[in-house]
Amino acid sequence: MAANKGGGTQWYIAIGALAILGILYFLFIANKEYNWSENYEPLEDYPYGISVFKNLVEKAHPQQDFVEITDSVYHRIDLDTLPFGSNYFLVGRELYLDSLEMDFMFDYVGRGNNAFFVSHRFDYQLIDTLLDVTTEDYYYYDFDTDGFAITSPIQKYQDTSVFVGLRGAPGFANWETECKYVRNHQPLNKVWHYFSDDIVAKSGNQIEILGTFEEYYVNYIRIPHGEGFFYLHATPLAFTNYSLLKDSGFQYVAQAAAFTGPGTNIWDNYNRKYQYVHNENYSNQGGTDYGHDEGPLAFILSERSLKWAWFAFLAFILIYMIFGAKRKQRSIPVIHPLKNTSLDFAETIGTMFRMENDHGKLLRLKMRLFRAFVRERYGLKTSVEQQDEAELIERLAEKADLHPEQVDEVFSMFNEYNQQKELEALDLVKFHQKLEQFYQNAR
Question: What is the rounded distance in angstroms from the CA atom of residue 25 to the CA atom of residue 13?
């Protein structure tokens, strides 16, 4: 039993290991699916991640430093020791910096550095400081109650794709590349943002237009502030991995980022994760928000460490189900049914009598068994005197449905052989045959 139990455990372990390997194969190899949300993740190869652009920024000027920010920018950068002419990059779906961070950015740019923001939406303090904003609710409203468009620095255009181009870059005067919005390789309608024609810098300096889409809508501007510049780009999809797969898309992004100059590059990976919940990306069929992940596991699966922790948790649950769900009790012993040993006993006794060569004793034993059969089968009393034997024979013949002579032969033969001192084996055989004849014919 112990050997079998150990062998069974080994089988459970082998099956559990194969099941886990099968799940991992299915999840990561056989059924690999991409995350099509606009997560702008710089460490993954998602279609709408920015790992290629981050690598481009990091390798653009090998002789200069590359600094990655994983905490609030005013905690990690010392303006007094920072080299002049550095470039700050922040790319995300919707950007937000708190008041301290925004004050730091104005001081940072005012000292002669550059800030490169790429997003659908920008922080209100940034817009209010740099542009002529007439409403604080420019994030939420496009039209007033009478149906007329309100003055807003950020306007919207809807289509499945746009052609983006640059101004002022060498060789890019009349050149454009397509920026497309797809999900699971299917084109979908997308809201594209651009800057209003009516905006002007509050400082009095003219805003410089560096790029447009569809030749008319301004999506890339440069705004002077102090001794530096703010670069605002309203088409972040152009900087994603999906857009950079094409050579034209890669060249567009490389030229767009080259406006900042060859200084130290600072990459902010902290403030890009702010997500303003607003439904404005939708398909041709309805108003589903495709800009955000759907489902409770969206955030877990979007983070590498949390994703692996989740799959490890599922693997442990599977192992527990395989091994912990087994019945935890002692093995039940096998109970064999009772065995009828009467025939074995009779055979053993007969063998002993044959070995003693006492045929008379065996004769009396057979007669005793015959009388016991008559008592149990027909309910007759067999311990009678010899003078009452005739009545017993008559009643037994009636119950067994035999002729009285057939029953009388059994008793007569026994009485005759029982009186002999030395019973021959042949006589014992004859008596045995007579009993067998009775057993076979009796009812």
Answer: 18
Q: What are phi and psi of 139, to 5 degrees?
A: -75, -25
The SS3 call for residue 236 is helix
CA-based nearest residue to 438, from 348, 353, 362, 371: 371
**365 vs 146: CA distance, rounded Å:** 124
Angstrom CA distances, 85 to 3, 44, 239, stand at 76, 30, 23
CA nearest to 267, candidates 51, 60, 66, 36:
66
Q: What is the dihedral of CA 323, 326, 328, 329, to 10 degrees?
A: -140
Question: Quick check: pTM over 0.70?
Answer: no
From CA 415, how far away is CA 392, in angstroms rounded? 15
Cβ pair 263, 63 in contact under 8 A: no
Tokens of 141: 């409203």
The pLDDT tens digits for 328-347 are 666 677 887 766 666 666 66
pLDDT digits (tens, 9 = 90+) for 44-53: 788 888 889 9
Q: Closest Cα partner for 397 from 417, 381, 374, 420?
A: 374
How far apart CA 126 and CA 115 sit, in angstroms, is: 11
**Tokens 């997500």 — which residue?**
275
Average pLDDT, integer, range 80-86: 80
Cβ neighbours for 283, distance < 8 A, ≥ 6 positions apart: 183, 188, 189, 290
Contact present, 72 and 45 (Cβ < 8 Å): no
